[in-house]
Design goal:
Layout (H helix, E strand, L loop, with lengths): L40 E2 L19 H4 L11 H24 L8 H6 L5 E3 L23 E5 L12 E6 L3 E6 L2 E6 L25 E2 L6 E7 L4 E6 L3 E6 L13 E4 L7 E4 L5 E4 L5 E4 L1 H8 L9 H6 L3 E2 H4 L1 E2 L2 E2 L8 E5 L4 E5 L3 E6 L5 E6 L17 H15 L8 H25 L6 E6 L5 E5 L3 E5 L5 E6 L5 E7 L2 E6 L3 E6 L4 E6 L5 E7 L2 E6 L4 E5 L5 H12 L5 E14 L7 H9 L7 E7 L5 H12 L6 H13 L6 E9 L2 E8 L6 E12 L4 E13 L2 E9 L7 H14 L11 H20 L13 E7 L9 H9 L3 H5 L3 H7 L8 E3 L32 E6 L15 E10 L11 E12 L1 H14 L1 H10 L5 E3 L3 E4 L5 E8 L6 E14 L2 E2 L14 E4 L2 E4 L4 E8 L4 E6 L2 E7 L4 E11 L7 E9 L13 H8 L12 H9 L5
Parallel strand pairs: 33-34, 39-40, 46-56
Antiparallel strand pairs: 1-2, 2-41, 3-32, 4-5, 5-6, 6-7, 8-9, 9-10, 10-11, 12-13, 13-14, 14-15, 16-17, 18-19, 19-20, 20-21, 22-23, 23-24, 24-25, 26-27, 27-28, 28-29, 30-31, 31-32, 33-44, 34-36, 35-36, 37-38, 38-39, 40-42, 43-44, 45-47, 47-52, 48-49, 48-51, 48-55, 50-52, 53-54, 55-56
Length: 1135
C-alpha cells in the first residue's frame, strides 16, 4: 500500500496524448431488558477449550497485533484468501462447538482454572436510557453498508501524514495530506493486498492498495484535469504541483512533473474553469489565473527545455485583484479566498470568503458581481476585520489580559498570576462560545454546484442556502444544527457532510431524502467515482457509499454482508490489570509498588493505575483549578508517581506509558506492553470536578479513552464524597461524572483554544439533543467497555466498629457484603447501573493506621471509623445478558480472573486494590470484508439485476452533429431530446479537442485543460436536466472579436487574434441517468470557417444542398432514436 509510482524524472520530455481519452469515447459505458434482578450474583461458566487453538494470543508479535497479516504478493493472493476463509470457518466452528459444550477437552484443567472467571454481582438499571448499550453489529442497522477504503487509522499513526482532502477522477481516487499525495486505482479498491511495497505505514495495514508521492509540504487542495491527464495540488508553501494520472513504473515513489511558486502564502483553493484555465486563491483575497496556454506549453517541453517549465508558468499569471483595483480601490472582498467554484453551465467562476462572494466571467475574467451571505450586492467589501477568526480574537484578548495585569502592592504574585490565567481562560471560553453560537454561525463553510446550475452553500449553523447562477439567493434549508463541512453532487442528488460526522442526502428541490452518521468524526471532504460517494473523516478514514443510498440496495447488501459475518470476524484477547489506591498524600516505597503492581505485571498487556489524594490543601486545589481553566494539568507530585511506577514496570523497554491525566489529587495513567502498543491509540483524556459546586477537584474523576482493536474502552478513576451518611451525594457524584465526562486530546496552553472549542461543540451537542426532545447520550455510554476504579467511599451500614472487626477476623465477608452501601444502591438501580463487580473476597480496605501491618492496623483512634470497602473496581462490557458470546454484535466481553487487595502495603490509610481482567475483543478484518463486498456485488442476482436497472442511460437524440459558424457574432441552437418517457436525462457538454487548419494543414484535435472550451466559443447551458419526453435548447455562440492577451508577471504585454485559420472543435454531449456513473456520448462537430463570409454560395449549387443536409428538422427529432440519429449524422459532413 505504500506502493509509490515510478520516478517521473522524464515526464516533461514526453507530452501527454491529447486524444483517445477512455472517458470520452462515444456510446461507451463506464461502469428494553433487565439484568439479573431476581439473582444479582452470577457465576459464569468457564469456556470450554477449543478444538483448534486458533484464538489469537495477546503475547504474539507486534506485527500480528498490528493487523499486518496480509498477503506477501499478488501472485498468491487467491490462495491466501482461500486459506483465510477456511481459517475463519474453522474458528467459527470452534466457537459454535464451544458454546454448545460439545468440544472435547484436550487441554489441561490447570490452564482452564487459571483463567476461571470470578462470580459477579450485576447492578440493576442498565440497558435503558443513558445506560443502554451502544449498537454494535456486523453491519450497522442505521446506515447503509459502506466500502472501507481506509479504515479509521489510530491518531498516533497519523502525525505528520494525516489526509486533508480527496478527489475522484474517472478511474482514480486521490488524497492529499500533510506529507504529499496518494492515489488509489478505483478498480483495486476491493483488493486486500499491499501492492508492491514491503513495509506498510502505521494506520494503513487494512487500507486498499495505493501509491504515494515523494514527501511534500502539506496539501491543502487538489483538482483533477482529465484533459491533460494530470492532478493539480496546492500546498501550504504556496506552490502548485502537478502529478500524472498515468501509472509509471521504475520506482516505489512518484514525483510531480511540474511545480512552481504560485503564491507567497498557502494555497487555500483551486479550480479549473470551463475554459481550461487553472484558478488559485490564497490569503487577503488574492486570486491568480494560470492560463492553459502556458501550462500546456510547459508540459510539452522536451527534457533539454525542462528547466524553463516552472518559469514559463510562474510568470504567466493573471492577478485578478490587480485587474479590479482602480485608483487604489479594490472592488472585491479582501478576506481569504477559502473556496473557488466553476459554474460550467454558464461559464462563470465563484470565489468565496467567510462572509462574501464574488462572481467572475470565466472567459473574459471580468468581475461580474460582489455580494454578501445575505445576497445583498456590494460595491466594495473589505471584510478583513469581519472575517477575523476566533483564533485571532483569542490572541488579541490573551495579550490584552496580560497587559492589564500590573504590579500592585495589595496583590501577591500568586494572586496576580491566577488573575492573568483566569482572564485568559475567560477569553478562551468566550471566543469558543462565539465561534459556536455567535455571529460566526453565518460563515460559509462549503459550496458546490448542482447539475441544474444552482449553487449550494453551507454555513457554520448548519444552514443550507440555494443560489441561482447569477448570485441571487433562492431559498434556505435547515436539517441539522452542526456546521456544514463539505458538499458533493451526483445526478439529481446533493450530499452534505457535517462536522458531527453526519451525512445527509437531498434532492435538487432541497427535500431531505435520508441521513446517517457516516463517521465518528467530522466529514471533511466528499468525492464521487465508480458508483460510490467517498467520504473522508478528520481522523483519516475513507468510506465509500453507494450512490443510490438511501435506497433498496442498502437492505440487500446489509443482509448479505451480515450473513457472511464469520468470514471477516477476528477474535483477539487481552489481559488488563486495573489498580486503585488512595495514597493519602503519602509516597510509596519500591517494595510496596512491586507488591501491588510489579508482582503480576509479567502476565498482562495493559496496566491501568488510578491514584487518589496525591496532594490536597486549599492552595493546591486553587492552583489546579486555575491551570485546568487554560488547559494545563499535572504537578511535580504526579510526575513523581508516574516515574516511580514507570521504573517498576521497566518503562521504555517492557512497557510504555500511553496516556495519563491529573486533576488536583486524582491521577490516572495507562501503560501498554511494547508488543501491543501498536493496536492502541486515539488516546483522549477527561476530568470532571465534583467538589465545591462542581468546580474544585478535591472530589471528582479523571478518565482515559482509547481505541483498542478498533473498539472503544474507557478507564475512569473516581473519588466521591466521604462520610457514612453521604450516600446520596456519592450517587450524585457518579451521575454527574457519567453524564458530563467529555474526552478531548490532552491540551496545553497553545492548544487551549482547541480545547475550548471542543467544549463548545459538546455544549452544542447537548443543546441539539434538548432541542430535538431527546436525551443526550453521554460519551461513556458510547464505549464498548468502561472500567470504573477508585475510592468510591461507600461504607458498611448497620454495624458497629467492633462487630465489623469480629466479622473481618473470621473472614465472614458474605454478611458484611449484605450491608455494603454500594451493593445496596446498585441493587436498587441508583448508581453504577448495569455494571459488574467480582464478588469481594478480601478484607475492607479502609481505614488503617499508617505503617501498621496486618488486620490489627484498622483505625483504633478516637473516631474508630468502621472498616469499609471504599476502594473498588467495576466494569461494563458489551454484554446485554450473561450468555452473550464475543461477536461483532457483542464485540467486547470481559471477565474478572483476580480481584484482591494488597494488605501488606502500609504507607496509606487505604490498601491498594487490583483487578485482573480477561478481555475478548471481536474486530473486523476489513481487507477480507472488502472482498466479500465485491463478491456480493458481482454474484448476487437480485443486486445485479437492481444495478443493471439503475445503470440504464435514458435514450436521447441530438438535432445535429455538425454546426457551422460564420466569421461573425452568431449563434446556433443545439437541441437535445430525452426519448425516455419515465427517466430524467442529465447532460454535460465538454470540448474533446480543437483543430486548426492553416495553409492547408490540419492539426490534431487537442483538448484544453479539463476539456475546457476554446475562448472563441460559448455553450450555454453546458449542463442540465432533461425531463422525460422533453427537449432542451443549447446555444452555441461564436465571439467575433475575441483576442488573446499574454501576461508576464501579472501585467498584459501582448494581444493578438486567437487564430487566423479555420477552426473545428468536437463537443461531447455526455448523457447519464440519475443514479449511474455510466454515460453515453454524442459528438458534435462545430466548425468556424474564416473564408465563409467571402465565399459566395450559389443557391442552386450542390454546396447549398450539403448545408441543408447537415440539419435535422425539429419535427423529425421525435421520430428518431439515438442510434438512428447517430447513423444519419455519421453520413453528414462539413461543407
Amino acid at each position: 500500500m505504500d506502493d509509490r509510482f515510478g520516478d517521473d524524472n522524464d515526464l516533461l520530455s514526453s507530452p501527454p496524448p491529447h486524444h483517445n481519452h477512455p472517458a470520452l469515447h462515444s456510446s461507451s459505458h463506464t461502469n428494553p431488558f433487565s439484568l439479573f434482578q431476581d439473582s444479582p450474583i452470577h457465576s459464569p461458566h468457564p469456556r470450554t477449550p477449543k478444538i483448534f487453538d486458533r484464538f489469537d494470543d495477546s503475547s504474539s508479535s507486534s506485527s500480528d497485533l498490528s493487523f499486518s497479516s496480509i498477503y506477501n504478493s499478488s501472485q498468491d493472493g487467491v490462495i491466501q484468501t482461500a486459506g483465510k476463509k477456511l481459517d475463519c470457518m474453522m474458528k467459527f466452528l470452534d466457537r459454535k462447538l464451544s458454546k454448545d459444550g460439545t468440544a472435547p477437552n484436550n487441554n489441561s484443567t490447570m490452564s482452564v482454572s487459571e483463567n476461571r472467571p470470578s462470580p459477579e454481582f450485576i447492578g440493576n438499571g442498565g440497558g435503558t436510557g443513558i445506560f443502554r448499550f451502544p449498537v454494535r453489529t456486523a453491519v450497522h442497522p442505521d446506515r447503509p453498508p459502506s466500502l472501507e477504503v481506509r479504515p479509521h487509522p489510530l491518531r498516533e499513526t497519523q502525525i505528520g501524514c494525516c489526509l486533508r482532502t480527496i478527489l475522484c477522477t474517472e478511474s482514480q481516487l486521490w488524497g492529499g495530506g500533510e506529507s504529499g499525495v496518494r492515489c488509489w486505482e478505483l478498480s483495486e479498491l476491493y483488493s486486500a493486498g499491499r501492492g508492491e511495497v514491503e513495509v506498510v505505514k502505521g494506520g494503513d495495514e487494512m487500507t486498499a492498495p495505493f501509491r504515494e508521492s515523494v514527501q511534500t509540504p502539506e496539501v491543502t487542495c487538489v483538482v483533477g484535469d482529465e484533459g491533460e491527464r494530470v492532478v493539480w495540488s496546492g500546498h501550504v508553501d504556496g506552490r502548485i504541483r502537478c502529478w500524472r494520472m498515468d501509472r509509471r513504473s521504475g520506482g516505489n515513489w512518484f514525483k510531480g512533473c511540474l511545480s512552481w511558486q504560485a503564491h507567497r502564502g498557502p494555497i487555500l483553493s483551486m479550480v479549473m474553469s470551463s475554459y481550461g484555465d487553472l484558478w488559485s486563491g490564497t490569503e487577503n483575497g488574492i486570486i491568480k489565473i494560470w492560463p492553459w496556454e502556458a501550462i500546456e506549453k510547459a508540459l510539452s517541453l522536451t527534457a533539454e527545455e525542462r528547466h524553463m517549465a516552472a518559469l514559463i508558468v510562474e510568470r504567466s499569471y493573471i492577478d485578478l485583484k490587480s485587474q479590479v483595483t482602480i485608483n487604489g480601490v479594490c472592488y472585491m472582498f479582501a478576506s481569504d479566498v477559502k473556496y473557488l467554484l466553476s459554474d460550467y453551465s454558464t461559464a462563470k467562476v465563484w470565489s468565496a470568503g467567510l462572509f462574501s462572494f464574488a462572481l467572475w466571467d470565466a472567459r473574459t475574467r471580468e468581475l461580474l458581481k460582489v455580494f454578501n451571505v445575505d445576497g445583498e450586492t456590494e460595491n466594495w467589501v473589505d471584510k478583513s476585520m469581519q472575517d477575523m477568526t476566533a483564533e485571532d480574537e483569542l490572541k488579541m484578548k490573551f495579550v490584552a489580559a496580560l497587559k492589564k495585569e500590573k504590579p500592585q502592592a495589595s496583590f501577591s504574585f500568586l494572586q496576580r498570576s491566577c488573575n492573568a490565567i483566569l482572564g485568559a481562560a475567560d477569553a478562551v471560553r468566550r471566543a469558543a462560545v462565539k465561534g459556536a453560537f455567535g455571529d460566526d454561525n453565518r460563515r460559509t463553510e462549503a459550496m458546490v454546484i448542482a447539475i441544474d446550475g444552482t449553487i449550494w452553500t453551507g454555513c457554520t449553523s448548519g444552514l443550507l442556502v440555494q443560489w441561482d447562477g447569477n448570485g441571487n439567493r433562492v431559498q434556505d434549508f435547515q436539517y441539522h444544527s452542526f456546521a456544514v463541512q463539505c458538499f458533493c453532487t451526483f445526478g439529481s442528488r446533493i450530499w452534505v457532510g457535517y462536522v458531527s460526522g453526519t451525512v445527509q442526502v437531498l434532492d435538487l428541490q432541497g427535500n431531505l431524502l435520508g441521513g446517517w452518521v457516516a463517521h465518528s468524526a467530522c466529514v471533511m471532504k466528499m468525492a464521487v467515482g465508480a458508483g460510490y460517494v467517498f467520504t473522508l473523516a478528520s481522523h483519516g478514514g475513507i468510506r465509500g457509499w453507494n450512490i443510490t443510498s438511501p435506497g433498496p440496495l442498502d437492505n440487500l447488501l446489509r443482509s448479505e454482508l451480515s450473513g457472511k459475518e464469520f468470514l471477516y470476524t477476528r477474535l483477539e484477547n487481552l489481559k488488563i490489570l486495573a489498580g486503585t489506591w488512595n495514597v493519602g498524600e503519602g509516597r510509596a516505597c519500591h517494595d510496596s509498588l512491586i507488591s501491588w503492581l510489579g508482582s503480576v505485571a509479567s502476565d498482562v498487556d495493559l496496566i491501568v493505575v488510578g491514584l487518589q489524594e496525591l496532594e490536597m490543601g486549599a492552595g493546591v486545589l486553587a492552583m489546579s483549578a486555575a491551570k485546568e481553566s487554560v488547559g494545563l494539568e499535572g504537578s511535580p507530585v504526579g510526575q513523581w508517581w508516574l516515574d516511580m511506577i514507570g521504573s517498576i514496570l521497566d518503562e521504555g523497554s517492557t512497557f510504555e506509558r500511553v496516556g495519563s491525566r491529573q486533576l488536583a489529587g486524582l491521577l490516572i495513567a495507562v501503560w501498554a506492553r511494547t508488543n501491543v502498543k501498536g493496536i492502541i491509540g486515539d488516546i483522549d483524556a477527561a476530568a470532571v470536578p465534583c467538589g465545591f459546586g462542581h468546580a474544585i477537584g478535591n472530589k471528582g474523576a479523571v478518565g482515559l479513552r482509547m481505541r483498542i482493536y478498533d473498539r472503544i474502552i474507557c478507564f475512569v478513576n473516581c473519588h466521591f464524597a466521604a462520610h457514612l451518611e453521604a450516600v446520596n451525594r456519592r450517587n450524585a457524584d457518579f451521575d454527574h461524572v457519567y453524564r458530563t465526562m467529555v474526552f478531548t486530546q490532552p491540551s496545553n496552553l497553545f492548544t487551549a483554544a482547541a480545547a475550548g472549542v471542543s467544549s463548545a461543540v459538546q455544549m452544542l451537542r447537548v443543546t441539539n439533543a434538548v432541542g430535538g426532545h431527546s436525551e443526550a447520550m453521554p460519551e461513556l455510554s458510547e464505549a464498548d467497555m468502561v472500567v470504573f476504579l477508585g475510592d468510591f467511599n461507600y461504607r458498611i451500614d448497620g454495624i458497629s466498629y467492633d462487630e465489623a472487626r469480629d466479622f473481618i477476623s473470621q473472614r465472614s465477608f458474605d454478611w458484611l457484603r449484605e450491608r455494603d452501601q454500594l451493593r445496596t444502591e446498585m441493587e436498587a438501580g441508583k448508581v453504577f447501573q448495569g455494571m459488574r463487580e467480582a464478588i469481594i473476597r478480601f478484607p475492607p480496605t479502609y481505614k488503617f493506621e499508617r505503617h501498621q501491618p496486618g488486620l490489627a492496623g484498622y483505625d483504633a483512634g478516637e473516631k474508630k471509623r468502621i472498616p469499609a470497602w471504599c476502594d473498588r473496581v467495576l466494569y461494563r462490557d458489551s454484554r446485554s445478558s450473561a450468555e452473550s458470546e464475543c461477536s461483532l454484535a457483542c464485540p467486547v466481553v470481559g471477565s474478572v480472573i483476580q480481584y484482591e487487595a494488597c494488605m501488606d502495603v502500609t504507607e496509606s490509610d487505604h490498601k491498594p486494590v487490583r483487578c485482573l481482567f480477561n478481555v475478548d475483543i471481536a474486530r473486523i478484518d476489513e481487507s477480507m470484508r472488502r472482498q466479500e463486498f465485491r463478491e456480493i456485488m458481482e454474484s448476487n442476482e437480485r443486486i445485479c439485476c437492481m444495478l443493471k436497472e439503475l445503470s440504464k442511460v435514458p435514450e436521447t437524440i441530438v438535432s445535429t452533429n455538425n454546426i457551422m459558424l460564420q466569421d461573425s457574432d452568431e449563434s446556433s441552437i443545439l437541441r437535445i431530446t430525452n426519448k425516455s418517457g419515465r427517466d430524467r436525462a442529465l447532460y454535460t457538454i465538454v470540448c474533446e479537442g480543437e483543430s486548426i487548419k492553416e495553409d492547408g494543414l490540419v492539426s490534431d484535435h487537442c483538448p484544453r485543460g479539463s476539456f475546457g472550451l476554446s475562448r472563441w466559443l460559448e455553450v450555454n447551458p453546458a449542463m442540465g436536466i432533461i425531463e422525460p419526453d422533453h427537449t432542451v435548447e443549447v446555444t452555441v455562440h461564436h465571439d467575433k472579436f475575441h483576442t488573446l492577451e499574454e501576461f508576464v508577471d501579472g501585467v498584459p504585454r501582448n494581444s493578438w487574434c486567437e487564430y487566423t485559420g479555420d477552426r473545428e472543435v468536437i463537443l461531447l454531449v455526455k448523457i447519464q441517468g440519475s443514479c449511474t456513473t455510466e454515460t453515453i456520448c454524442h459528438r458534435i462537430c462545430v466548425c468556424h470557417c474564416l473564408s465563409a463570409k467571402t465565399k459566395h454560395i450559389d443557391p442552386k449549387s450542390d454546396d447549398r444542398a450539403k448545408v441543408q443536409r447537415n440539419l435535422l428538422q425539429r419535427s423529425n427529432i421525435q421520430q428518431l432514436n439515438s442510434f438512428d440519429a447517430f447513423d444519419q449524422l455519421q453520413n453528414l459532413h462539413t461543407p
